[in-house]
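Need residues for this backbone.
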């Protein structure tokens, strides 16, 4: 060494061993440095579409977050929020079916308490069970009232429809009724106690077990490990008893939606390829340049969608109608962003950009349909294998 620093790489000539405090300070610096780059890059990317991609391909990269790291971080954060707020559990089910399922769960919980906790030799557990049992009775009565109101409303609608059809037929209008004049809703409000599924620790109802655990004194509750294990066992037993064809459809739909991140990741190189075709005459652009633009566009889209999810949650909480208009504007902004980014990045006029923007969207739509077919087949095979 000719001095304090290496002549080849510039590294300082110091002892290799670091103190614990040095490791902590490096860790904090790396985190905050990443945050500074991330928010700085995201801010410029959203305000000036296409500018970040253009600067990156021109070599101005020191102040920017690496595109791959940005995509991984942004997409991971987006899908965590998306899957925590979006559910397909109620697909194919109306309010009546949801209430019937809720009623069945409550009745099953009541039956377990009658057979298990109310008969306990522990006085504290019996007293707790009586309180929980009373709460269950009240909830069951409410749900039964809701189902009865829905049944009467449906019966009234059927009768009105039939009266209208009869009136039209009397006037000579040929009508073929699609529903008969009867109440075709099948309300079964009882729980069959003759066939009980395998029970764990005397419980075959997750509702009953969870309610008892919440109501019991702390010293009487199961430990968190035992509670988590027991809950999973009871849930699996309950699902095996109650799931049917619609549950299979919901499982398939959920599996397909959870493959959506993979589908988007696979679409990245295709999107960049479409751009390379549309701008094939511009020889200065390499495929990697189109890929950089694609990654930044996807990251911006994730952020816009996060904003739409936040607006949806705000609308549900407040009920303000103006938020619906804001969501519509936000959805349009996603398309406008891509157009503005293409024009800035590739430097072409309005007419050419609009034409290529339109072609890009058509090609992307066809690509996503193709990928949807492939991932639908994959989801179907995964569900089929899971049931065997």
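Answer:
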């Amino acid at each position: 060494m000719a001095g304090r620093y290496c002549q080849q790489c510039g590294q300082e000539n110091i002892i290799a061993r670091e103190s614990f405090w040095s490791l902590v300070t490096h860790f904090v610096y790396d985190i905050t440095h990443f945050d500074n780059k991330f928010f700085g890059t995201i801010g410029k990317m959203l305000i000036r579409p296409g500018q970040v991609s253009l600067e990156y391909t021109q070599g101005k990269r020191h102040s920017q977050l690496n595109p791959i790291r940005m995509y991984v971080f942004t997409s991971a954060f987006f899908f965590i929020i998306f899957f925590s707020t979006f559910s397909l559990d109620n697909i194919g089910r109306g309010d009546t079916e949801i209430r019937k399922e809720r009623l069945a769960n409550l009745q099953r919980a009541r039956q377990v308490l009658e057979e298990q906790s109310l008969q306990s030799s522990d006085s504290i557990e019996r007293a707790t069970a009586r309180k929980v049992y009373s709460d269950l009775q009240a909830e069951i009565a409410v749900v039964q009232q809701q189902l009865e109101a829905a049944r009467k409303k449906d019966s009234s609608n059927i009768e009105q429809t039939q009266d209208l059809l009869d009136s039209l037929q009397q006037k000579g209008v040929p009508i073929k009724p699609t529903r008969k004049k009867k109440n075709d809703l099948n309300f079964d409000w009882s729980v069959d106690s003759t066939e009980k599924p395998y029970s764990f620790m005397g419980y075959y109802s997750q509702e009953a077990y969870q309610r008892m655990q919440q109501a019991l004194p702390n010293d009487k509750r199961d430990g968190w490990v035992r509670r988590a294990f027991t809950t999973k066992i009871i849930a699996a037993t309950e699902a095996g008893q109650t799931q049917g064809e619609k549950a299979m459809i919901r499982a398939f739909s959920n599996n397909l939606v959870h493959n959506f991140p993979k589908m988007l990741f696979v679409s990245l190189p295709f999107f960049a390829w479409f751009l390379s075709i549309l701008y094939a005459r511009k020889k200065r652009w390499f495929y990697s340049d189109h890929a950089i633009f694609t990654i930044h566009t996807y990251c911006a889209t994730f952020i816009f969608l996060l904003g739409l999810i936040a607006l949806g949650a705000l609308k549900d909480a407040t009920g303000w109608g103006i938020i619906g208009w804001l969501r519509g504007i936000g959805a349009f902004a996603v398309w406008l962003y891509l157009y503005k980014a293409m024009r800035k990045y590739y430097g072409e006029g309005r007419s050419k950009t609009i034409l290529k923007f339109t072609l890009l969207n058509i090609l992307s739509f066809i690509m996503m349909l193709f990928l949807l077919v492939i991932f639908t087949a994959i989801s179907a095979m995964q569900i089929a294998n899971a049931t065997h």
